[in-house]
Specification:
single chain, 447 residues, mainly alpha, Hydantoin permease, 18 helices, 78% helix, globular, binds 4-fluoro-L-phenylalanine, binds sodium ion, membrane
Length: 447
């Protein structure tokens, strides 16, 4: 975002596209489906939907509101707004923890972005054509077992991210999202259609929407909340930074609703595309992070026109991953630019190399370092768990508590542009339901 003149978006549409570019990514397709599969299905999905509506929406609005008022990077914005309202400078920690979270997330996000790049190429050369489930799983397992392959693709993906951020051409990418996002939706619909034709769509529907509440426990609820934060790019100061580009006339709640609906629809479509393939082929829903990489190639490899559809799908997935990854690198780059004498290019290289190094540790946890465990988790899982289950909820909580309890209540209410009933609903949800929900889920999930 830093390279945009700090002018406001020409239109609400431009803003929605930029925010959706950050939100829609691997989280919707790769992470959502694997978390649903790992957590046993519908109970997770329903808790996730509740978190998106009751916690995600008010926190998204809060982050944008803070950004629009502060007009600076997350750390300075929080520090200045706190000072203006006679609050402690310690509120800047919300910004610091956001920058840290973005840095950590990008390290493993880039590894998966690399998988997506690799699968794009494999689709082009027809690797998946006519293969059965065992062969496809074997290909995936082979990739995981090879540190060199993983390193190569992780490096390629990070190089793309660094190149784009260093040149500050993110705006161009965001306008490309105008075309590519609908294309992604169309491809997902085709895959859902394939799932319907497979005869296992009913099972997938039941798996995703008919809850077995006995599967629910504190850990699953925390995972669902973490997924809500992750997928909406919350708790990283990123939406705060975006908010600083938001015109005064843009309605926060309706804009948040648009972005959230888009993000949620894409995630649900991904589930409806993937689980019929899982059931039709006797695969395991709890396959883990490899879920989309052992299901979708199987479908593409065996459907008419699969080569071209597979290529388009993985290309679009890679593109969506890139627009999200760019937004994940920005906070660190901006912080270095503002706090050191580094130029943009140097700051980008320094942050990118740091992220890349950490990503190398993450990818080694799939092979040579698979036995290196911390708290029972390998490095990849540790990075993912620590960010989505701890840093993001705490940062997001900080943002919403700051808006509802530290900013002037009248001005917040005026800014929302709601009717008086709407304001009351907002006050109940944003002041009590969302913060209490985050705290309860956080505490019970960790215990
Ligand atoms: N929301 C992105 C996704 O669902 O893939 C991931 C992400 C991007 C998370 C940017 C956080 C972020 F700041
Ligand atoms: Na998302």
């Amino acid at each position: 975002m830093a390279k945009l003149a700090h002018a406001q978006w020409s239109s609400r549409m431009g803003f929605v596209l930029a925010a959706a570019g950050s939100a829609v990514g691997l989280g919707n397709i790769w992470r959502f489906s694997y978390m649903v599969g790992d957590s046993g299905g519908a109970a997770f999905v329903l808790v996730y939907l509740a978190c998106v509506a009751l916690v995600g929406l008010p926190i998204l609005v809060s982050e944008w509101m803070i950004g629009r008022r502060g007009q600076k990077n997350p750390i300075n914005t929080m520090a200045d707004l706190a000072a203006d309202h006679g609050k402690s400078k310690a509120w800047a920690l919300v910004g610091v923890s956001g920058v840290l979270a973005a840095f950590l997330i990008l390290s493993f996000y880039s590894v998966i972005g690399g998988w997506s790049l690799n699968y794009t190429l494999s689709s082009v050369i027809g690797t998946f054509n006519g293969q059965d489930a065992d062969a496809i799983s074997g290909l995936f397992g082979g990739m995981l077992a090879s540190p060199v392959t993983l390193l190569l693709w992780h490096t390629a993906f990070m190089a793309l991210v660094i190149g784009i951020v260093a040149r500050g051409v993110t705006k161009g990418l965001e306008s490309a999202a105008r075309l590519l996002m609908p294309a992604l939706v169309v491809l997902m619909l085709i895959l859902v259609g394939y799932g319907v034709a497979s005869g296992y769509f009913g099972e997938a529907l039941a798996f995703m929407f008919r809850p077995d509440w006995s599967a629910l426990n504190g850990g699953v609820v925390l995972a669902a909340m973490g997924q809500a934060f992750f997928t909406l790019s919350l708790g990283m100061g990123i939406m705060m930074a975006y908010g600083s580009y938001l015109g005064e006339d843009v309605n926060l709640i309706s804009t948040a609703r648009t972005v959230i609906i888009l993000d949620t629809v894409i995630a649900l479509l991904a589930g409806l595309a993937i689980f019929p393939i899982v059931f039709a082929n006797g695969l395991s829903a709890g396959e883990g992070p490899g879920l989309i990489f052992v299901t979708l190639p199987l479908a593409f490899g065996n459907m008419a026109g699969g080569t071209i559809l597979g290529l388009m799908f993985f290309l679009l997935l890679t593109f969506a991953a890139l627009t999200s990854a760019i937004s994940l690198l920005e906070p660190t780059v901006e912080m270095l630019e503002e706090r050191t004498a580094m130029s943009r290019v140097t700051a980008t290289l320094a942050s990118g190399i740091g992220v890349w190094l950490l990503g190398v540790a993450a990818l080694l946890s799939f092979n040579v370092w698979s036995d290196v465990l911390f708290f029972g988790l390998n490095i990849f899982d540790l990075l993912d768990t620590f960010t989505s289950k701890i840093l993001l909820p705490l940062t997001g909580l900080g943002a919403i508590v700051f808006v509802t309890w530290c900013l002037k209540r009248d001005s917040v209410e005026a800014e929302l542009g709601l009717s008086s009933t709407g304001v009351s609903v907002w006050n109940v949800i944003a002041r009590f339901v969302a913060p209490a929900g985050v705290i309860v889920v956080f505490v019970t999930g960790l215990l």
